[in-house]
Amino acid sequence: MPKRSIDPETGEPALTHREKILIDAYIANGGNGQQAAIQAGYSANRADQSAYQVLHREVVQQHIRDRIAESHVTPEEIIGSLASWMRGDLSEMLDESGQVDFDLMKQKRLGHLLKTVTTTTRETKAT
């Protein structure tokens, strides 16, 4: 097994390339270690175990804490966003005819409740 390189700034063992990718994927996907490990190139058969081992290293946990602190997002903002998603009512985006009204949605600041929008048009023939 190759020796881990030393971080010149801290003098501690540096993160490997795969560990850095795992951390980025873990933060980006909201904390799914197994999926992050697969994205980082760990075997899908043992992805959960690999994620567990990497994510329980103190240097990795510190790196994640640092990344979260750099984001300048407060716990209050996170809780506010989660509460908004939890309490969001999609019916508030509909106009009187039951169609999605994007202007109304923007006005009520409910755009975060939509993931994707698909428009379907149907042509009918008169009989």
Structural class: mainly alpha
Strand residue percentage: under 5%
In which range does the helix fraction lie? Answer: 40-55%
State the CATH superfamily name of the largest domain. Answer: Terminase, small subunit, N-terminal DNA-binding domain, HTH motif
Rg over C-alpha atoms, rounded to the nearest angstrom: 22 Å
Number of strands: 0
The CATH topology name of the largest domain reads: Arc Repressor Mutant, subunit A
CATH class of the largest domain: Mainly Alpha
Order of helices and strands: HHHHHH
Q: Helix tally?
A: 6
Major sheet characteristics: none
Mean pLDDT equals 85
The shape is elongated
What's the end-to-end separation, in Å?
Answer: 76 Å
CATH architecture of the largest domain: Orthogonal Bundle
- Uncertain regions spanning at least 5 consecutive residues: none
Number of folding domains?
2
